[in-house]
Amino acid sequence: MISKMIRYDIVLHVGEQEHFIDELREIGLVDITTTGWEPSDKDRQRLSHIDAYNKAIEALQTFKSSDAYVSDVEGYASGEEAFVAYTSAQERRNEIAARIALLEKQAQDIAPWGKFSKSDIERLAQQGVDLRFFMAQPAAFAALEASAEEGVTVVEINRTQAFVYFAVVVANGASLTVDGQEVHLPECDSKATMAQIDELKAEDKELNATFSRAARSLDAIASQRATLLEQLQGLQVSAMAQREADGQLLVMEGWAEAETAERVDKLLEEYPNLVYMRRDATIEDEAPVKLKNNKFARLFELIGAMYALPKYGTLDLTAIFGPFYMLFFAICLCDAGYGLVLLLVGLVLLKKGGPKLRQAALLSIVCASATVAFGFYANSFFGLAISDYAPVIKFLDFQNQFFSISLAIGVFQILVGMAINIYMQAKLFGFTSTFGLLGWFIILLSGSLAVGLPMFDLAIPGFDASSPVFYGLVGVGAVLMLLLNNVKRNPLINIGAGLWDAYNNITGLLSDVLSYIRLFAIGLSGGVLAQVFNSLAMGLSGLDSMAEGTPWYAMILPIIAASIILIIGHGINLFMSAISSFVHPMRLTFVEFYKNAGFEMGQRSFNPVRKMK
In this predicted model, what pLDDT tens digit does every residue of 440-478 receive, in sequence order? Predict the structure, then answer.
């Protein structure tokens, strides 16, 4: 659900702004509107500076958990000093890394030439001996060696399968034509180049002392970042506040949750020289949104936030789409063994991943648990048929039965979305505004019950496609859809608009329902690939062709080979299937379900002014 908001319009003297914002930070309950703030060039520099602090903190947290971190060092005197030291050290480390990469490439290129002295080559050139270096294909080198003119000496230095590296000594101005690439040697050979690399690596290692001191000062750096964030927050509030009375008064718009509004009221009433007005936020307001769900639904806020928050005054769909998403994930992955692997991953993340990954870990555990249950029901455990080991249990024949079930699930979720849309329209604009949509809902629901249920050997007594009740409901739905879609409009215009809506709704609903086939297709493809990898492992290793009574020692290598194939194959399949199971249920939620539920996006989330950490 969406937390109820209270709107505050606050007027105070411009000189009180900084102190007042500090008071709001202390209680941390009021969101001051800064929507539409356009940063100046100076503000962009502040944002860039804060971003640099964020990256420094993240990098130092990673460094602190590495083997290079030394804990028994003294930190810096201030967060700013630690940040400057870290930044300088990081810049030098980047320079060293770039230089090492260049030297390693250079060492690789000159390694075939062995040891040489650039000064000796230059000294020979001064004495009239022109020493040049080439690389050519073996055939071209052989031709040059055979046809060398007088005064030209060809010396092979190194040879690979593709090239011959050689030197040519030219004396007395002899002419030279070489079918190859001339190489200009650097100042030093590969051995000297590697020595330079070792020196740079030693210098890079010494930088760890600076990083360790900065890591010891992480709290100070975080505190300095908090100060910068609070300064930026104050600038945003000041920039977006309206100035009245020749700039002497500030008018600010603020928001607070209804359940904490009493504490805000108390602060505003006690604050001197301040006037405020308060009222309940409405759907017309661009109020910030804060979701307030139970523990289960809160897990799926992570999914919903990837699209958008709902608009204030509408309905939060998180608790409704959450069970659907969990079911869709399980259907797409459709294997109890894969579900167990993801369950273990989720438990590991929950234990060792830290607070930031807690919600993702819990979501993984919930979806993986659903996958284990559905995968068992679908008779699949790492591609193996569970029914071979438990023949008395009746399993779902996924391949032959689930195509129609996936369509039924789609129709059901779309009906739920349409019911939500009808409810919200009735709440916001009155019941008569829902007649057009209500007519479609009655027709679709009636058709699903009268025609769809018998397809699954279910039926409502006395209610089928030929019953008078069915025709009556379809007739009521047609009247609402064609004649009463807008009670304030001419009925003839309603008929035309209703027919046009009928065309759009029929094509749209058909497309929406068919989209749910992807649940069947993804689940089936993952199961088939799992079976293929099982067959490959048994066939390529030879285990399936071994005769009974084969000695155990003769089976060791085939078992190892089969295990390697199974681990790699199922690993690839699990990775691809997990991605599909994450993405496609999200698409069904955000496209098909949200569209039919009339979802409206919110402008921003509730972000109160508070002390930064």
Answer: 888 888 888 888 888 887 878 878 878 888 888 888 888
* Residue 146 CB partners (closer than 8 Å, separation 6+): none
Backbone angles phi, psi at 135, to 5 degrees: -135, 135
Identify which of 309, 312, 256, 254 has the alpha carbon closest to the alpha carbon of residue 284: 312
- Three-class SS of residue 42? helix
Q: Measured in Å, how far apart are the chain's first and last C-alpha atoms?
A: 28
**Which string of DSSP letters, residue by residue, matches 429-458?**
H-GGGGHHHHHHHHHHHHHIIIIIHHHTT-
Q: Take residue 32 and report the two structure tokens written for it.
A: 């001051």
What number of other Cβ atoms are within 10 A of residue 589's Cβ?
Answer: 26
Tokens 């900065």 appear where?
214
Structure-token pair, residue 142: 């052989």
Residues whose CB falls within 8 Å of the CB of residue 167, separated by 6 or more in sequence, listed in order: 131, 132, 133, 134, 154, 155, 157
Neighbouring residues of 291: CB distance < 8 A, sequence distance ≥ 6: 1, 2, 3, 298, 301, 309, 316, 318
| CB proximity list for 360: less than 8 A, separation 6 or greater | 302, 349, 353
What confidence tens digit (pLDDT) does each residue in 240-251 have? 778 777 778 888
In three-state secondary structure terms, 490 is coil
- pLDDT interval class at 17 (50, 70, 90): confident
What is this structure's pTM?
Answer: 0.76
pLDDT level of residue 481 (50, 70, 90 thresholds): confident
Q: What is the DSSP string of 323-347?
A: HHHHHHHHHHH--HHHHHHHHHHHH
Under a CB-based contact definition with an 8 Å cutoff, are residues 41 and 294 in contact? Answer: no
Q: Helix (H, G, I), strand (E, B), or coil: what is residue 288?
A: coil
At residue 317, what are phi and psi to the nearest 5 degrees? -90, 5
Give CA separation, 454 vs 403, 408, 409, 457, 459, in Å: 16, 12, 15, 5, 5
Token digits of residue 117: 């002295």
Residue the block writes with tokens 């050139």: 125
User: 533-540 long-range contacts, Cβ below 8 Å, gap at least 24?
Assistant: 533/383, 533/565, 533/566, 533/569, 533/570, 533/573, 534/382, 534/383, 534/384, 534/566, 536/565, 536/569, 537/561, 537/562, 537/563, 537/565, 537/566, 537/569, 538/562, 540/565
Distance CA 127, CA 149 (A): 21
Residue among 605, 609, 612 at smallest CA distance from 304 = 605
Helical H runs in 378-482? 398-429, 435-447, 453-455, 468-482
DSSP 111: G
In whole angstroms, give the CA distance from residue 357 to residue 351.
Answer: 10
Q: How far apart are CA 248 and CA 112, in angstroms?
A: 78
Structural contact between residues 306 and 360, judged by C-beta atoms closer than 8 angstroms: no
Rounded CA separation 138/95 (Å) = 39
- Please tell me what DSSP assigns to residue 182: E
Which of 586, 564, 563, 583 is closest to 575 using CA atoms? 583
Q: How many CB atoms neighbour CB 329 within 10 A?
A: 29
Instruction: Write the burial class of residue 298 (CB in 10 Å: 0-12 exposed, 13-18 middle, 19+ buried).
Output: middle
Environment class of 285 (CB within 10 Å of its CB; exposed 0-12, middle 13-18, buried 19+): middle
